[in-house]
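User: Show me sequence and structure for the first protein, then do the same for the second.

Assistant: Starting with the first protein.
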Amino acid sequence: ADACLAAARALSIVDTITGAAFQLRALRLALELGDPFRVLYNVALGAGLAAANEGSRGTSADTYLAAAERTAELVTDPRGRAFVLMAQGVVAYCRGHFERIIDAMREGEHWLVTRCVSATWELNIVRIFLSLGLAFRGDLPALARALADYEKDADARSDVYAGGHFRLAARPWLALASGDIEGGRRALRDAIDDFHFEGYSWASFHGNVHLALFALHDGDVWAADEAIKRIDALPGPILLARFRFHRLLARWLKGRTEVSRLSERSDRGAQRKLRGIIDGIFDEGEPWADGLAH
């Protein structure tokens, strides 16, 4: 049960499909053992994996969350409540509910820091998703304060995993907001070199999203296209074809690129491509994403 759970956890933000397969196997074994703590961890992890694959229209993630909340009542370990909050935050991220991410992950962080031990990976996940929630919500002052603490803590622990995610996925939003594009691009490339993220889809996705945004800020459509090509080259079934939120973000980025192309010259091909991108966003049926199309 523990071996399958470890595999599911490691794959949870790399390959949601294979991760879900290990999670289900771990859950079955945990139920056979009759251990509420192991069952709780599995259903909490299952909620995030389900939400990554189904978006806001599915119900499997809600079923997992309800099971996690019920099982948490049987668990005395304080990590139990933290796992439920972590699952709620991940589900909110997948569905684009950024206020809920912030609320759940802030409370989860408080539980993990003040009441729990031996939960470093969980604390990293909570802080990574909290920083992304603050970025997408637009609360940049809070994001700056949080990253100052998180990066300092990660560096003190020589935690490349956590530090790399903060610098690749969250900190570039501060550079974009401040207009320090060159400094942001330089720091991002340093983070890419330090993290060695080629082949690691989650980090590659966020890193290339920011490289494309920096390029668009400079009006460099070619460089933005190159970053988008690297995103498209990522394993589709892992992060784009299955992870709805990332797929929508990638489509929005492609739309921004086509808008920039049209601002340079009239191009009927770009117009048709942009229309298809907009229709694709609407077809996802995510109400929160309609603003991306507009």
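Switching to the second protein now.
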Amino acid sequence: KEAAENAANAVILELPPTSDIDKLELEVVEKETSFEEMYPQLEKNKRASKKKKEVQTVVEEVAILSLSSSELPVSKASITEHSVPAPEGTLPEYSIESWEHYGHLLNDGELVVVTEKLCGSNVRFTVSEMQQYCGSLHQWEAEDKNNLWWRCFKETDWINTFCQLHPEYILYGEIFGAVQELNYGATEGEIFFRAFDIWDKNTDAWVSWDTISFLMGDLSFGSELSQSWAPVLFYGEYDPIEVVKLVNEQSNIVGAEHMQEGIVIQTVTERSDVNTGLRIKLTLVSDQYTVDK
């Protein structure tokens, strides 16, 4: 944590050329120094206010990227009227790295599974002390019939069944449909859900693909793996040339008439890189999606 804070101590801020700040040059904004103290004359300047928010975001991102490999980004979001205190335990906020940056950590010939990367909103579900929790990426949501994450829970019956049967797990997934620019054939207000990962609260570790297949393939959950999980595009020996060919394809969600956002590549046997501690689950975004966005 100390290393993360040290790494985030300074961020270069280029101020916008407004009449108030034409004479100001590039400055280093120290994390411990408030924006108002450095530039009191810009208190009412909207463009400066926007820059302030951008700096705060960069500082937070630098802090996360500077964590040691053994640390996971766990939510420290403050409690608001729209959120509830987090359940006990290690509850990681979901994040995976880019294949373009870390693809070299995959070994040619090792067993991998490739799934479709869906475009929507991150969600997580778990039960703790007999209470159901629904979380977005950064907070655990207060129950509300109009809340997107609680709507997903109530409209997808098998999620409740899974959570009740397995309170030791956190189920991660994507809410998609009438959520982002890729709508997967959804009508106005219609949402869908597919899971894409499971965290074991007892062992503080991600569940292996074989265990996922066993859990999600059980018909007592009311839904088979093919209908509840992100579409599986490939299972077999890793070949980077062949895997990359999968990224610029049409979505495999029934009803979608557009490209997929990208793909996710993970090892069948859950593992992390021995040198960096990085989890070997990587994402590769479609070229066309990047251009269109």
